[in-house]
Write a structure and sequence with these properties.
single chain; four-stranded antiparallel β-sheet; mainly beta; disordered N terminus
Length: 384
């Protein structure tokens, strides 16, 4: 019965996520929800914009929801609900909203304590029944069930990251969960921990919503890397990890049968070429067609385009880097059509739209939206 349920929910998730993709054409329009930091700024929460994928034009729709420090926002695969990580130290919480696509407004469903400090990343399991939360400061991961009405239920798991600390005394003084994501088959959940220089691997029970350390329980990265975010290759066989403290990408093969990660390429530090000064790795994203991968670095404030070694090695080549047109590109996102990349410059209060060259992956700036208070994440919702 468990196998039948898993297959049913996996099929349901695939249906929910792939149907919109088939309808995505160059003239499609999207709502874009932007999370911000409200501390020490005039921001009030989550802001909405309309994005025209035929032109790359971004049009303000106003404040979608007033909520404190929504540093990460995700939209459920059914397009009806949104969830925000309210990053507020010991008062941190996770908030569920319903979406009114016509008005772009978000309506509060419920809000629960994050059960940790400073949640910085959210993701869904492949069935859409659970929300994963990475709490940075406290170094723990929490699993919330998603109830039939979109509200968050009583957590089904709360696991503390454990391991040997990295050598950076200031940033690696304890475990710091920075990214959490299920593997493509939903049997394992991976966590990048900046403080431990590890990618932790948990077995995931999608009936009970529980997490159990795998054997082995982690893959170790080079000391002092400080892994931040990661993304899978389009075939699910390679995990690419962007490090923050020693900016660069580590490629690891992924064995879906055992949940085993093994390093095949360590490019850490390669983005430091021709630059001296502060440089903090930030975001990593795979292009929808799998041709390129993009990463951002704060300090020099650029986005790099990575290409892949011929064959099926999974190894990377570092290509050109492009200025983001502002300061502190903490996050960027590729629109679902794959034609544009939107970079949020946190310290410049702007979102810059780039077109992506279909042949080379090169970025060309086409517009700048000013007056976005401290933007730190964004996500797309198809509306046409």
């Amino acid at each position: 019965m468990k196998i039948i349920r898993r297959c049913f929910f996996s099929a349901l998730f695939c249906l929910l996520t792939t149907l919109p993709a088939f309808s995505q054409t160059p003239d499609q329009k999207f709502l874009v929800y932007v999370g911000t930091y409200t501390d020490k700024t005039d921001s009030k929460g989550i802001y909405a914009y309309e994005f025209d994928a035929s032109t790359g034009k971004l049009t303000p729709r106003g404040l979608a929801a007033e909520t404190p420090n929504p540093s990460w926002v995700v939209i459920h695969p059914n397009g009806k609900w949104a969830y925000a990580a309210n990053e507020s130290g010991k008062r941190s919480s996770i908030t569920a909203f319903s979406i009114d696509a016509k008005s772009a407004k978000l309506t509060l469903l419920n809000q629960l304590p994050a059960l940790g400090e400073d949640p910085c990343y959210l993701s869904f399991d492949k069935t859409g029944k659970y929300l994963f939360v990475a709490n940075y400061t406290s170094g723990n991961v929490v699993v919330f069930p998603i109830l039939p009405d979109g509200k968050l239920g009583v957590p089904t798991a709360n696991v503390k990251d454990r391991g040997t600390l990295g050598p950076n005394k200031e940033r690696q003084e304890g475990p710091h969960a920075h990214w959490v994501q299920p593997a493509p088959d939903n049997r394992f959940v991976l966590v990048s921990d900046l403080g431990l220089d590890e990618i932790l691997v948990f077995r995931f029970d999608d009936d009970k919503g529980t997490l159990t350390p795998n054997d082995p329980p982690f893959a170790k990265l080079a000391p002092g890397n400080g892994p931040r975010h990661a993304t899978f290759s389009t075939n699910g066989k390679i995990l690419y990890v962007m490090s923050e403290l020693n900016p660069g990408v580590t490629a690891l093969s992924y064995d879906s049968r055992k949940g085993l990660l093994e390093s095949i390429q360590d490019n850490s530090g390669h983005t430091r070429d021709n630059f001296s000064g502060r440089d903090d790795g930030a975001e990593i994203a795979m292009h929808p067609d799998g041709k390129w991968m993009f990463t951002s670095v704060r300090g020099p404030d650029f986005i790099s385009v990575h290409t892949f070694e011929p064959g099926a090695t999974g190894k990377l080549f570092l290509g050109r880097s492009f200025a983001t047109g502002g300061k502190e590109p903490r996050h960027f996102a590729i629109d679902p059509t794959g034609r544009f990349l939107l970079a949020e410059n946190q310290n410049s209060n702007s979102i810059v739209v780039f077109s992506i060259n279909a042949e080379t992956g090169a970025l060309s700036q086409i517009s700048v939206t000013e007056g976005v208070p401290s933007p730190v994440c964004l996500t797309f919702l198809p509306i046409q």
